[in-house]
Amino acid sequence: MLIKNLPELERPYEKLERFGEETLSNAELLAIIIKTGTREQSVISIAQQILNLGNNDNVKSLRFLQDISIQEFMQIKGIGKVKAIQLKAVCELSKRMSRPINNQMIKIKTPEDVVNLLMPELRYEKREVAKVILLNTKNLVLKIINISLGGANFAYLEPKDVLAEAIKLQVPKIILVHNHPSGDARTK
């Protein structure tokens, strides 16, 4: 069924405007981003096909969207290059929105504080990433620096890369952080 044939209050744009974004289904939210369907399918049907790409996951999470490439989005009839790029941009915006707004006000007291600071960003990385957190004497975060982007199971680090910015800024404390894309933090 085409969107224009739906009752006005069931159309995604009107529904969001009248009842709020939280009342829309995932397909309806995606439909707003995609904007148009094809002659054969409504925009909601196309959005549902995208959501079906993540059906192999028992958890009803939308995180799988971050892993879909532009080319994979374009495999769906009705998703061209521009729409695929728009979807990737929305995925990146959602990742960035989960990061802390102001690192300067974050105080590190425990290892869990570091996890809470960087987990939203590193959780779904497919490659090992190494970062240095620069702290002042009161353990307030001054800066977070990416120092290595490695492969699936390694990150190559040079001592000079770890220490260069800390020495330059004369910070008294640093924390070296890296992720485990496999999810397994045990050493082999």
Give the N-to-C terminal Cα separation. 54 Å
Largest sheet, if any?
3 strands, antiparallel
Tally of contiguous helical segments: 7
Query: What form results from the Cα inertia axes?
Result: elongated
Structural class designation: alpha+beta
Output the helix-strand order: HHHHHHEEHE
Q: Strands of the largest sheet, in order across it?
A: 2-1-3
How confident is the prediction overall: mean pLDDT?
A: 86
Q: If you compute it from the alpha carbons, what radius of gyration comes out, rounded to the nearest whole angstrom?
A: 21 Å
Outline the low-pLDDT stretches. none
Helix content: 25-40%
**What percent of residues are in strands?**
5-15%
Description:
The chain has 188 residues and is an alpha+beta fold. 38% of the residues lie in helices and 12% in strands. It has seven helices and three strands; from the N terminus they run ααααααββαβ. The chain has helices at residues 12-19, 26-34, 43-52, 70-74, 81-97, 111-122, 159-169, and strands at residues 129-135, 141-149, 173-178. It has a three-stranded antiparallel beta sheet with strand order 2-1-3, with helices on one face. A hairpin with a 5-residue loop joins strand 1 and strand 2 (141-149). Helix 2 (26-34) packs across helix 3. The protein starts with 11 loop residues before the first helix and ends in a 10-residue tail after the last strand.
